[in-house]
């Protein structure tokens, strides 16, 4: 009984996870939760070396090994290097969580729209995820886990100006279903978590979209990054081995 309880407390003991965009917000919450569950965690960051160092300290305070690697998710070569470094550093790779993303808005037909920002959004939200998965697949052990962070906007868009962003996330939802077919024979599961309104720097609970999104949620409030981390922790854990190709909305009832 004691052995079973220990496993339950640290279900990811001995596993190695890579989380893209893990220095802040939802990504950092995922990193912390996976470390709490017993995983050694590598994560990427794009700008804040100091913030990344603090997250590594948090991982190590939990008794796990942590490694932060700077990588631009829009740069395919850097993403490939990130995945390979993660594998080399720990000698294995069991879990890939695609959390890095950007949110660029703009109305269709607006001559002032940020086309460069749109291109970078596609590079990060779509191409970066695809590159990470393609690079990781040969390195993942059979029975591995892949989870991407999407948005409920991929299914229902509650306000104007978000079409480019939600389209980028809808693409990953489609890839998720396809990858689950490709990797099923290796018992690698592939799923996507679609957050609703989550309190982050990208979409704060006192920000410009707060009134609209809070009103749409059955619970009438924003969620927290830890809510998404809990969903990811379940999907990469041993109890979710028969869940693949699935979309899990964590949105307080926004899509009800």
UniProtKB/TrEMBL annotation:
TM annotation in the entry: none
Pfam families the record matches: adh_short_C2 (PF13561)
Keywords of this entry: Oxidoreductase
Domain Ketoreductase: 15-201
SMART domains: PKS_KR
GO molecular function: oxidoreductase activity
Family note: Belongs to the short-chain dehydrogenases/reductases (SDR) family.
Protein name per Swiss-Prot or TrEMBL: SDR family oxidoreductase
């Amino acid at each position: 009984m004691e052995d079973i309880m220990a496993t339950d407390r640290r279900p990811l003991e001995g596993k190695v996870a890579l989380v893209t965009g893990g220095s802040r917000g939802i990504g950092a919450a995922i990193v912390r939760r996976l470390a709490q569950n017993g995983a050694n965690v590598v994560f990427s960051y794009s700008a804040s070396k100091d913030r990344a160092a603090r997250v590594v300290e948090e991982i190590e305070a939990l008794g796990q090994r942590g490694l932060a690697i700077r990588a631009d998710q829009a740069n395919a070569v850097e993403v490939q290097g990130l995945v390979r470094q993660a594998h080399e550093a720990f000698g294995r790779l069991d879990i890939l969580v695609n959390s890095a993303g950007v949110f660029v808005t703009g109305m269709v037909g607006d001559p002032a729209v940020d086309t460069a920002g749109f291109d970078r959004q596609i590079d990060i939200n779509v191409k970066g995820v695809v590159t990470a998965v393609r690079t990781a697949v040969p390195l993942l052990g059979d029975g591995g886990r892949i989870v991407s962070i999407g948005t409920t906007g991929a299914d229902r868009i509650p306000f104007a100006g978000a079409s480019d962003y939600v389209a980028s996330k809808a693409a990953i939802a489609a890839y998720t279903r396809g990858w689950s077919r490709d990797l099923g024979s290796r018992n690698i599961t592939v799923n996507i978590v679609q957050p609703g309104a989550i309190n982050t720097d990208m979409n704060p609970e006192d920000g410009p979209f707060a009134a609209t999104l809070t009103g749409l949620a059955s619970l009438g409030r924003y969620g927290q990054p830890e809510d998404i981390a809990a969903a990811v922790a379940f999907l990469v854990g041993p109890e979710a081995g028969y869940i693949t190709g699935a979309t899990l909305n964590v949105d307080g009832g926004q899509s009800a």
